Amino acid sequence: MKFSEHWLRQHVRTDATRDELAATLTAIGLEVEEVTPLGEALHGVVVARIVSAEKHPEADRLQVCQVDAGGDAPLQIVSGAPNARPGLVAPLATIGTRVGELTIKAAKLRGVASNGMLCSAKELGLDADASGLLELPADAPVGTPLAQYLGLPDASIEIKLTPNRADCFSVRGIAYDVAAAFGSEVTPLEAHAVPAQGTARMEVSLEAGERVPRFVGRVIENVDASVATPVWMAERLRRAGVRPISFLVDVTQYVMLELGQPMHAFDRDALEGTVVVRPARAGETVKLLDGRTVELDGEFLVVADSRGGRGARAVALGGIMGGEDTKVGSATRNVFLEAAHWIPSTIIGRSRRLGLHTDAGHRFERGVDPSLPPVAVEYATRLILDIAGGMPGPLVDDTIDGALASPATIALRRARIARVLGIAIADTDVERILRALGMQVEATPEGWQVTSPRRRFDIAIEEDLIEELARIHGYSNVPARSPSGEIVPHAPSETRVTTNALRAQLAARDYAEAITFAFVGTEALRTWGLEDGAVPLANPLSADLAVMRTSLLPGLVAALGENLKRQQTRVRLFEAGRRYAKGEDAPIENARLAGVATGALVETQWGESSRDVDFFDIKGDVESLLALAGASADDVVFEAGGPAWLHLGRAATIRRGDAVVGHVGMLDPRLQKALDLDADVYVFDLDLDLLAARAVPRATALSRYPSVRRDLSFTLPEDVAYADVEVALRAAVGPVLVDLFLFDRYTGPNLGEGFKSLSTGLILQDRSRTLTDQDADHCVALAVSALETGCKAKLRG
After folding, report:
1. What is the pLDDT confidence band of residue 55, given thresholds at 50, 70 and 90?
2. Fewer CB in 10 Å around end: N or C, the chain?
3. Distance CA 265, CA 380 (A)
4. What is the pLDDT of residues 81-132, one digit of tens each?
5. Tell me: the pLDDT tens digits for 336-363?
């Protein structure tokens, strides 16, 4: 929000200097980003009129001007400005005046005397426009000091507002905070009702329900729209960062900046029939003031007239921008002023969808005082009548009964203030601050009943009022004290592996932790086939961050891809976070642990030959996490196959009991190509709650008796997974089989097509006695029988 210092001081009286004002604004939460002094050194610059302008005899781009500066005789000035012409009123820096780094002296330009300098706005430090001379109104008094005429010196102050302070998107809104901080009062606004002088009116129909609960309008006939915007208004607009366009447009901008209520002026003669406020129709288009034609859907609201049928033609995009067909111009004679209350949810995100950013939309998104529309129309009417004349019709105020939000009434306790802030604030100071902020205050035995003004959408609970007291009373006056109270220590559960332990395990296995956005683009999820159930954001920052992620992997793989583009060929990343999906009442959150890996298994070194990471490496990483949780081979099964985004032959679904813990494998080559990844990428995605669960650890005695090892080599079909072999062996041999491992796998033409050879080691041990050779042979016989029956295996000689 940018505004003129003089404009603010018109609404609140204070003797504070500019520096004190800026410091106080920042201290009370309205952070001042920039203060731009204007017209600090304009001594010797006067209003002047060019009487004549002739071409310089020695230079095509220069003109020799005779300028009336209010003296006895015209001054001769040589100017190179393209807009220098007879009759133009512009600033003149007289001899001896300092303009920027230049001191004006009598000089000769190409042999022609010049006794001063006609100035642009940029040369005077008033604006960035350097395209020509600063054009002043034709009735500007010649010879008057420019500073006096323009109300200078002044300053343009820009403040940074947090989203909850929508009430400060106006000069009067800021004035309330300044009044409270300096112990002053806001000057009453002179916006008295303007009596109707004619009968012209526009009928209004509200068909959008409570999305637009109030619409106020007035017809003003016989307006002279060609009048120039008064200098005082144009200068206030410029100092607020708004370039004046035409009088009727400038009036609506001026009222918005002063009061905070966006409004629009229609050319009444371009409207037909009843004005209808309704939802847009799917595929409906409207041509906006900026020349763009936009296509709408039912989430947008429009203002329509009855050309082509009642409510048939959209003439404005509700709460965002007016339409080209009904805009006002210098030829406009009859005006329809409107000011409506659009609730924030109606506007949030709509401008961004169309690539627009308007002052009106920015304010309505954050909330505008619902009581302002009639005040704004009355105020704008008075300005138009005073400057451009006209005959006002009756005020039309269409409001849906009970739809406007009522101001909140909150009980504020004296003891609660002291408890939260750690200090007691005098009752008189509490009442002064709250009343200065525009609140109604009624004393009670425990404190006060406070009714907030309708413009303060951020005041809802007692703590909000205490925050107001703290920032106005001064945060520097609140003592710094250590918190008191009992702190209950957290006792970690033995039935769960902590997330930090899982993080440490992955870090020990050479993974780096990453944190990616929880927001992703719909298109990115569609590429993965993960768009089903995605939760859309009501007000996304951009199209690439429009929905909540349904998996951690798209973000992690994107981060891996960025590393690959920067010549980092060995990348191993993991993330512990949440994914989101639509639920019946609210989004469902699920804690996940995911990782990605590509490139060499180990860093380049001399002690080990280099090879790329493969499926079994990343499977081993997952198994190390399961081992932390005490998962045993009897408990966890890796089943071949997985989701469509994994390679069909290099993927596994991880089951722990009856639950699916997650998936591990290589990305599908088609997905890798779509993601522009040149290297094979291996990933895992695990349910953190299922992964971290573990039984309470129990100590057991080690067997006192020796173990026996027996090795088995056998052939079996290629499509029989080793997991099935392991299950069959453990079930057949029983608890005597204390360990089982695979130490060789072989395929070759001598085995026949579709067959493989596996070699396993069986570790046998009993807790009560030493196993004999006969015991071991019996266990081997059971194992061979189970393999032949359940796995179609044959023992090799």
Report:
1. very high
2. C
3. 10
4. 999 999 999 999 999 998 888 899 998 898 899 999 999 988 888 887 888 9
5. 999 999 999 899 888 888 888 899 999 9
Let me know whether 245 and 284 are in one domain. yes
Asked if residue 744 and residue 607 are part of one domain, the reply reads: no
- pLDDT for 495 equals 84
Residue 316 domain flag: yes
For residues 296 and 433, membership in a common domain is answered with no
- Considering the domain architecture, whether residues 67 and 161 belong to the same structural domain is answered as no
What DSSP state is assigned to residue 334?
S
CATH code for the domain of 116: 2.40.50.140
> For the domain that residue 266 is a member of, what is the CATH number?
3.50.40.10
Q: What are the angstrom distances between the C-alpha of 766 and each of 58, 234, 455, 530, 773?
A: 115, 97, 80, 50, 13
Counting residues of the chain whose pLDDT is more than 90, the rounded percentage is 69
C-alpha 351/C-alpha 614 separation (Å) is 48
Question: For all residues of the chain together, what is the average pLDDT?
Answer: 91
d(CA 406, CA 90): 51
Which pLDDT does position 744 carry in this prediction? Answer: 92
Whether 194 is covered by a domain: the verdict is no
In this structure, is residue 626 part of a structural domain? yes
In a domain, 486, yes or no: no
Q: Report, as an integer, the average pLDDT of 260-287.
A: 94
Whether 68 has a pLDDT exceeding 90, the answer reads yes
Residue 634 has pLDDT above 70, yes or no: no
Q: Give the side-chain half-sphere CA count within 13 A for 399.
A: 15
Q: How many domains does the chain have?
A: 6
Q: What is the pLDDT of residues 766-777, one digit of tens each?
A: 988 999 999 999
Residue closest to 260 by CA, chosen among 191, 359, 158: 359
| Cα of 755 vs its chain's centroid, Å | 58
**Same domain membership, residue 21 and residue 144:** no
Query: Could you tell me which residues come within 8 angstroms of residue 353 by beta carbon, excluding any fewer than 6 positions away?
Result: none
Q: Are residues 266 and 345 both part of a single domain? A: yes
Q: What is the DSSP letter of 184?
A: -
Helix intervals (H) in 675-748? 688-692, 722-733
Q: Which of 727, 732, 731 is nearest to 780 (CA)?
A: 732
- CA gap 147, 42 in Å, rounded: 6
pTM of the entire predicted model: 0.67
**The pLDDT value given to residue 796:** 84
- As beta bridge partners, residue 279 has 301
Alpha-carbon dihedral sign for residues 401, 405, 407, 409: positive
Taking alpha carbons only, the member of 166, 134, 146, 171 closest to residue 50 is 134
> Token pair of 604, please?
């380049």
- Looking at the fold, whether 586 and 674 belong to one and the same domain comes out as yes
Here the CATH number for the domain that contains residue 723 is 3.30.70.380
* Residue 356, CA distances (Å) to 245, 432, 493, 519 in order: 19, 42, 52, 22
- Nearest alpha carbon to residue 681 among 760, 605, 618, 611: 618
Q: Do 163 and 230 belong together in one domain?
A: no
User: Residue 419 is part of a domain; what is its CATH number?
Assistant: 3.30.56.10
Q: Which domain holds residue 288?
A: 204-399
